[in-house]
Amino acid sequence: MGWNGKSRTTVARLEEHPNLEEILGVLAQLAHIADSDLPHLAETWLNSPSIAEARDRALSPDSPLVLEVLAAFEAVGALFADDLLGEAPYLTVDRDVTVLALKSVRDAIAATYARPVLRRGEYDALMRPWRSVYAQPTVDQPDLGPRAAQVKALLATLPRLSERCHDDAGRALFEALVDQSYVAESDRADAAAASFQAAVLTERRRVWALVRRTGAEGMSRPCATCRVPVEDSRDVQRVLALCLDAACALLVADAMPDASTALLTEAVSALVPLQRRPDPST
Ligand SMILES: [Zn+2]
Hints:
The chain has 282 residues and is mainly α. The protein is built from 13 helices and no strands. It folds into 2 domains: 14-133, no CATH class; 148-276, no CATH class.
């Protein structure tokens, strides 16, 4: 890849981006940024007139896929929402440190996308804090745990529910899930709270947030036929909570009593064919 710093690169889709591999490496890492990495990311963040100029160039409208960059910034904000609020009892990193660390994270995201329009020195300056912690990518995709295939199968079902206006099977599934959402409701709420604690204890709190965000996005996607956003009814919220609690229970199944996992996943797994894609890792 050239470093002329001027070329106006037209990239229509992420798959066509010349720096795709590095972008995917950074994006996959986001949910796996450890609390212990945050102070280092914060300490190494630098600003100077030249770095600010590089950042401006990376985020200019001419930069490749700059809207995706902004969407990735928003995703970072969502994954670190608790950290930025600074109130939860399980937080171990000072909010101000996290704020600074996320500047390094955003610079890395911007630099990987903008690499074709940055000069070598600009790119290096924006990537330095990130590279000082993640010299090599540590994951090539977010690690959804020992039952990842089931988590993915469940997440892949949610967009189908948003097409229930045009898909009879999707509508029947939605209605069955609404019914199930009333079964053992308070027991499930307790088990869901316990599984979140398991995610905190095993440092998977941000992967947990990623799963919920992905699921909520899938279900709120407009139907491909009528292109109208799904209404946000009480039933939608119930079904979404039921499915997300099940997905998150699968995420931390290795750290939870089997009975709790079963309680949270039974209703959904009876309706959604989670076993159809066997998990090669188990
Ligand atoms: Zn429709």
